[in-house]
Amino acid sequence: VDGDGAEATVVVKNPCNFPIEFYSLDFDEQYLQEEKILRMALGSKCRKNFFLPPRALGGTLPREVLEDYEAQKRLKAQRAELKAMAQARSRAEAEAEAEAEAKAMGKAAPAYHKAVPFYPEPMVKVIGNPISRAVMRHLGIDPAAERRKARQRRGIVVIVHGPPRAGKTEIAATLCYYYDAAYLSIDTVVKEAIANH
What we know:
- With 197 residues, the protein is mainly alpha-helical.
- It has six helices and no strands.
- Keywords: Coiled coil.
């Protein structure tokens, strides 16, 4: 039975002394799992042909591809957890509003809000897709050198401003960690420039 639901009958005759074995990728669990991992690694840019480093018979996919798959699974789980937390919070807020309306004459307790911290993984840990990284490792290309070249080709400047005690320093530190960038305070730069002249 194929994907369209059509059935076919195959007749095999064996004139030889040795048995004939049939192998179907549709029933090979390892193949199906690796196919799923590779599709996730390629993303929406699904190319028909790509190269992977050679592997021994019965070996697994390159570690870069497997690590990327595990990271994608963790990210998906984190997103699901954050979505569940947001839904629970909105339900709690709706219940609190209904309770407040019911107790219109009395004082209602203040709503409790909890900020969910966001800790993104740094972008500089990953250069290119996992298949490219696996091929680079196989060919002996140093990804650190590629990273330095990438930094020289492009840059980013982010200016974080706002009122006092708004969390600018924390946001700037998180962005610096995320982009592996230098942190400069404009006040400090101006003070150093004045002191040096």
